[in-house]
Amino acid sequence: MTVQTERAPSGPAEASEPPVKGKGRPSAPRKAGDFVPYLLLLPAVAATLVFLGWPLVNNAILSFQNLNMRQLIQRLTEWNGIDNYRDILTGPDFWRVTGRSIVFAGVNVLLIMVLGTLVGLLLARIGKKMRVTLMVALVLAWAMPVVASSTVYQWLFAQRFGVINWVLVQLGFEGMASHNWFGTQFSTFFVVTLLIVWQSIPFVALSLYAATTTIPKELYEAAALDGANAWRSFTSVTMPFLRPFLYATTFLEIIWVFKAFVQVYTINAGGPDRLTEILPVYAYIEGIGNQHYGMGSAIAMLTIVIMLLLTAYYLRIVLKQEEDQR
Amino acid sequence: MKRSLFGRFWPNATAVFLVLVFIFPVYWMFSTAFKKTTDIVTDTPVWFPTNPTTQHFKTAINADNFWSFVGNSLTVTLLAVIFSLMIALAASFALARMRFKGRRGFIIGFMVAQMAPWEVMVIAIYFIVRDADMLNSLVPLTLFYMVMILPFTLLTLRGFVAAVPKELEEAAMVDGCTRRQAFIKVILPLLAPGLMSTSMFGFITAWNEFPMVLVLNKQVEYQTLPVWLAGFQSVFGNDWGATMAASTLFAIPVLLLFLYLQRRAVGGLSDGAVKG
């Protein structure tokens, strides 16, 4: 939490802001020192415009071109208007992949949020020693580099000598001996989902636990005085307090899972038979793998539009939270 | 009695189970890396490397170009983090401490940039870098990574800068420091923990980045560790010992950083969140 300190009677370039509702605009620059903030921001803004803005613009430009291996080698620019978009939007593949991506993100985010919240609440309930142990475990899972954890999951689920198949056989599922986890769409998605959920729960759980520690004890005492049982005090004290946090985190997770390129690509490269490609992987394999660069750019463009909508929604939630805090 | 049993036993039992669930894959990576191959390819898993070997680490380190991958990864990651810290520090100071037109717009802009789907932009980036004749080089990677981690770095640092009491700075200036001296002598030392945890997240992002290297640097001597690790299996087939040793080598720097800074990291995340 940042605390706005009081204004100094005679400070240099002013810092702290009086709480302004809505569109309070500071007055226009008056003195020479007023361009200082812009000067300080210049490198960051310039770098972002060049290295993020230009690829975005270039992506849009490429998406209106017929650009394949031949054009790439001969360095030709062949405009084909909205052909790429028309082909994509009228063909079945894109919609299939989009639907798949939405279901995939939905399932993952639901699991992450529900389980993450439960683990976070559990952290608040257990003793200190146990809590620290569990936190360390969570941090370890969280910190694993994604490529490394993908590799480890491949080993856990390996057809031969994989520990998961062995455990399942011990539990009486004889048919799971030498089971190939990456043979079908559903089963591959199952492993990818497990990997993503396993790595994402820690962030939600730890942040949520941190948030619960800020709930004033008085609220619970008051609820207890009013004769609320544990469940009642949870629904009327804990949940309202955490709701804004949960909204924002949910959207953050949706955006992250939607972009889960590395996990899907390293676990099974979108296979078997391209059945586990989600949008970013689809754009990559069409564009780079199959060398239809124009098409790939158009798919990327559509993906970016979807992501922007999600991001806008997330920002709305976050900014509304900020307004409420003032 | 019943109440205390419920109140004590189940939460702890669940917690123990969760510790196992979250630790096990990490443990399995480590233990496999140290097991003899005969203990890896068994019908019944060997749970603990009773006679450990460093053979698999030797295999991984002796793999072609290993040290060049390490060098590239370190160079690109560290430079990207340092550059983005420098740029972000200046910007976060403006956003946390000054009032000016469009301040909120800048903040929202960086929040949008933080969500940028880099994974989807590799095609466009490929053509930009090709036209600049910079394929197979570490320079574009460094610059793109710098911008990739910049929004997060900037927004997080802004929270830390805002948390430093202004009075300290003013007191230093009353004592005759210039604004810059006050910044260097008073604020920067207080920001050190914030700088550390912020740069850690930047480090991890850049350390892990993988699609861009794959597309921009086809030549092996310009590739980084994630690409090496992802391609490791195709080279070593089912040599799980070597693959796990390679994963361990790749994960160790990050795991150590994370454990060392974990308390601060979690706090820092919430501190640097959205504050106007």
From TrEMBL, chain A:
The region called Disordered is annotated at: 1-28
Q: Name one GO cellular component term.
A: plasma membrane
Biological process terms from the Gene Ontology for this record are: transmembrane transport
Q: Where in the cell is it found?
A: Cell membrane
Q: Where is the composition biased (Low complexity)?
A: 8-19
Membrane spanning residue stretches: 35-57, 102-124, 136-156, 186-211, 245-265, 298-319
Which UniProt keywords are given for this protein, alphabetically ordered? Cell membrane, Membrane, Transmembrane, Transmembrane helix, Transport
**What's the superkingdom here?**
Bacteria
Q: Where is the signal peptide?
A: none
**Bilayer topology:** Multi-pass membrane protein
* Listed Pfam families: BPD_transp_1
The entry assigns this protein to a family as follows: Belongs to the binding-protein-dependent transport system permease family.
The entry's protein name is Sugar ABC transporter permease
Origin organism of this chain? Streptomyces tsukubensis (strain DSM 42081 / NBRC 108919 / NRRL 18488 / 9993)
From TrEMBL, chain B:
Main location group: membrane
Per the record, its GO cellular-component terms are: plasma membrane
> Keywords for this entry?
Cell membrane, Membrane, Transmembrane, Transmembrane helix, Transport
Instruction: List where this protein forms a coiled coil.
Output: none
Q: Which GO terms describe its biological process?
A: transmembrane transport
User: What is the annotated localization of this protein?
Assistant: Cell membrane
The membrane topology term of the UniProt record is: Multi-pass membrane protein
Q: Which InterPro entries match?
A: BP-dep_ABC_trans_perm, MetI-like, MetI-like_sf
State which residue ranges cross the membrane. 12-30, 74-95, 107-129, 141-161, 182-207, 240-261
Q: Which CDD domains match?
A: TM_PBP2
Family, according to the entry, reads as follows: Belongs to the binding-protein-dependent transport system permease family.
What this protein is called in its record is: Carbohydrate ABC transporter permease
What is the organism field in this record?
Streptomyces tsukubensis (strain DSM 42081 / NBRC 108919 / NRRL 18488 / 9993)
Q: What is the lineage of its organism?
A: Bacteria, Bacillati, Actinomycetota, Actinomycetes, Kitasatosporales
